[in-house]
Amino acid sequence: MYIVTAEEMYDMDHGAMNKVGIDGKLLMENAGRSIAASLKERVSKTYRILVLAGGGNNGGDGFVIARTLLDNDFDVTVVQVVPDEKIIGDALYHKQLFVCCGGNVTVMQTVDEVGPMISRVDIVIDAIAGIGMKGRLREPLASVVDVVNKKASYVLSVDIPSGLPANEGISDFYAVQANETLITGFPKQSAFLEHTAPYYGNWQVVSFGLPSVITSDGAHRYLWTEEQFRKTIPERGRYSHKGSHGRGLAVGGSAEMPGSITMTVHAALRTGAGLVTAATAKSAIPAVASQCMEATYLALGETNGRMNNELPIPFDNYDAIVMGMGMGRHHEARSHIRKALEEASCPLIVDADGLYHLKSLLASVKKRKSPVVLTPHPGEMAMLLDKSVPELLQKPFAYAKMAAEKYGVYIVLKGPFTIITTPDGQQTVTTTGNEGLAKGGSGDVLSGIILAMVLQDQPIMEALSNACFIHGKAADMLIADTHSVYDLLASDLLHGISKVYRTFV
Ligand SMILES: NC(=O)C1=CN([C@@H]2O[C@H](COP(=O)(O)OP(=O)(O)OC[C@H]3O[C@@H](n4cnc5c(N)ncnc54)[C@H](OP(=O)(O)O)[C@@H]3O)[C@@H](O)[C@H]2O)[C@@H](O)CC1
Ligand SMILES: [K+]
């Protein structure tokens, strides 16, 4: 499923109308009917419903919803929040159908009238404005939204909460706070951004009958769903052996921080890597080995318990390498990263302290022929790009794409919505996971899962998307079952991985 900007959605709408010949009125009918069908399934006919209809096609959807609900004996009325002359085209057509079917439309004269009407109903359907919004909501609509936010007991937004931008990069807006949003067609970028996503409430996508022959030229962004995970997760052959599932290397940890590399290695093994070696400071090995019997170890020279560069790492013995977790920010650690960039011919995944070192090695990253995967959280990504975190979070899709293309790397930008970007700018988003993951060690586990998935026989983009899916889903399944967002530990995720496999594969 695509993730789109407003312009990309309009391009597809126009494609359906101009290339296929579907009338816009029909698309509007489909959109409104899909939303009404969803409501019919779960809302009692004793509920009173008020549709707030604005002047564009979003308002048009509102008239279709109202007509369909009325036809099904729901108690529904429409308040038109713009003057009559603003209702034109397809929206006017559907308004007339609603009226001819016995529907009641009240045209708002002053905003003061709206509050009491909202207070009398159980559900407000917000069809004030959709993806055609330009700039900050003007008066009197801003005041209408204010009343909705203060007085409505339950708000269902049509396509997008009114006032909210569909695209990333816009911070000046005033919008409806929805309880739920039924998105028509494809989810918009703003459903995946920290500063706009909460306005949607719970959301689902409903169809407006866009034919599948209509594809997007511009939207190289996709939602990575459970269905895709099931479809793409590599099978484990009956006759496979440990070598068939890859030989991975994890470089990191120190005597003071043995936990990070332990979780990475353990997670890689649990996810299905054939063989995993942990390269860490010599004195950290007993602590790591006591927690993870299945791994092998490569003892690195050390100074005060932290790896130094006395002993080289044979980077070419592996099928994929992950580096950085707990390795420290001292210069000896950096030389291992530099060497890996120069010498390893397999995919190289860089996380945590490794990303800090990478900042000064970006020229070598660019030159490297074999794949590089960076797994930053927003703070690390902002550091790499010399941006502030708020700046980055305004436009994570654009910044990730720009950096991935510029340096020729895969980027896993971690967050509640993890954005995975390929060197040619394709993006997937995974939405699994919960606030229980906001703890030290979660990233180390993800690194291990990524290592294991990159070792399997599948394109790196799929491997990364599946790894992020597993990581988040493990947390979700643990929360649903034996844990809570408070007590979940990164090490618990190791058991969660088993649950994900047993459920989905
Ligand atoms: N085939 C299709 O087309 C399909 C379309 N679909 C639906 O159409 C929606 C897009 O419809 P759209 O393009 O008509 O725009 P829409 O969001 O309703 O807003 C336009 C209105 O807002 C107003 N307005 C703008 N800026 C403003 C501001 N700052 N402050 C205040 N007002 C402002 C503007 O007024 P104006 O500025 O022109 O006076 C105009 O009245 C989409 O989200 C989906 O729901 C689906 O049903 C599927 C099929
Ligand atoms: K809306």
UniProtKB/TrEMBL annotation:
Its cofactor is Mg(2+); K(+). Binds 1 potassium ion per subunit. One of its GO terms (molecular function) is ATP binding. Residues 9-216 form the YjeF N-terminal domain. K(+) binds at N58, D126, S162. It comes from the Bacteria. This is Bifunctional NAD(P)H-hydrate repair enzyme. It comes from Lentibacillus cibarius. The lineage of its organism: Bacteria, Bacillati, Bacillota, Bacilli, Bacillales.
